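README: folding subset

This subset contains proteins for which both the sequence and a predicted structure token string are available. Records are stored as plain text. Below is the entry for Acid protease (447 residues), shown exactly as it appears on disk.
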Amino acid sequence: MPSFLNIFLFFGLLASLVSAAPRAIQKRSFKVERVRNANFKGHDGPRELLKAYQKYRMDVPPALLDAINNKGKPDSTENVQTKASSQTGKAKGKGRKGGKGAGAAVGGNNGTTAAVGNSTAGVGLVTATPEAGDVEYLSPVEIGGQTLNLDFDSGSSDLWVFNSQLSAKATTGHTVYDPTKSTGFKMINGASFSISYGDGSGAAGNVGTDTVVIGGATVTQQAIELATAVSQSFVSDTANNGLLGLAFSKLNTVKPQQQKTFFDNVMPSLAEPVFTADLRKNAVGAYEFGRIDSAKFTGAMAWIPVNTTQGFWQFATAGFAVGNGTAQTATAAQAIADTGTTLILTSQEIADGYYGQVQGAVNDATVGGVTVPCDATLPDLILDVGGIYQARVKGEDINFAQVQGNTCFGGVQATTSDLQIWGDIFFKSQFVAFNGGNNTLGMAQHV
Ligand SMILES: *[C@@H]1O[C@H](CO)[C@@H](O)[C@H](O)[C@H]1NC(C)=O
Ligand SMILES: *[C@@H]1O[C@H](CO)[C@@H](O)[C@H](O)[C@H]1NC(C)=O
Ligand SMILES: *[C@@H]1O[C@H](CO)[C@@H](O)[C@H](O)[C@H]1NC(C)=O
Ligand SMILES: *[C@@H]1O[C@H](CO)[C@@H](O)[C@H](O)[C@H]1NC(C)=O
Ligand SMILES: *[C@@H]1O[C@H](CO)[C@@H](O)[C@H](O)[C@H]1NC(C)=O
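--- output ---
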């Protein structure tokens, strides 16, 4: 069982990281990596591929695990202790008031982020700032008057945050939400959450409600999940103070009473029941609620029906083309639009069809995925969306990250399950509207 052994060696249990809520954690199979790559800088292609496979519980090719295990020297996991969580409910009435008014500008961690918005007009606009290598995008969210930069994830449905229940060690460098300083915070007694993103990252804890403002768009009793345990990869990623899930509410993990996403809650107050993702290559983009800004795309927006059965922004796909070549049919499959994943995971058939047109592209077992020469000019990849829209992914974006020398990790890799995951590299070329009114995805070429 070599691959099981690898998995076991690679991932330790999150249980070792937890002291405040051990029971809640132990009953979930919640894991964290034990061997950390000391050289990891946040734009590691194989690692992003592993994250994507595991977020969706796909089989991980043994070569990929080997490649990651063999890279860098093993590093011991820090022991992240948590404080007792009993303080959360008390100290009402102290501190700042929740929720600034419409149109208020909010500052980010250090002034790199800003938000404008207008809740009276039923819209909210916030920046989406990429972290090094465009691995993830962060946006400022005001919770009970406190601003945190969160990763908006259209592939999950929990809003969880770094907060004052976590120890100083777990929160060093992070901005934390302190529920005791919000007059609007209310604990939901007995509620808990536990979310595992499968790459070993995850969070678990208790739950309350508070006012959440995203660029002016406001929800007064939004469920806020307060982590009492977070995995090391979130601890290390100090710019990221939590996630804001934007998939369908049926994927929310809060028990015993499942909670609605921010988008589901805010939808009735929006000018239009939509949010849009404007994610850019190495530049600040935006998420906008309630409005489709036609200045951000060219041509007509195509509307693709969403298959909601699994709770994702999922659609059919059945073909592709490479560069300006003729369209090729591919086996009919399903794909999801996932802002919380970095790479594009297509079928093996599409990955093979694409890299077959790239001189020097190899499926490199020592790296665990397809690599291309860094100096290659990559052709565009055209992906069929619902038989309605042909999305052109720019070749330059598919040259994802250097592995070493002239070897770069490909931004398109094969999925090992039936579901294709189209992440941030897809969004860099496409402006995407998520329409909760008629469960469609609007897509058009980004300007
Ligand atoms: C918000 O939008 C309304 C309606 O379009 C407008 O009258 C108002 O001036 C706007 N407020 C701000 C602060 O932008
Ligand atoms: C602000 O944060 C960004 C992202 O974390 C970082 O790269 C930058 O150095 C910070 N700037 C200052 C002035 O602290
Ligand atoms: C919707 O998705 C489910 C699960 O992925 C799949 O079984 C089903 O065939 C899809 N429906 C359509 C109409 O494609
Ligand atoms: C391919 O098509 C794109 C978009 O239509 C065009 O801009 C580009 O010049 C074409 N490239 C070649 C090599 O024909
Ligand atoms: C869904 O809504 C959008 C805009 O609100 C509209 O343009 C589109 O035609 C609708 N699509 C369907 C299938 O109803």
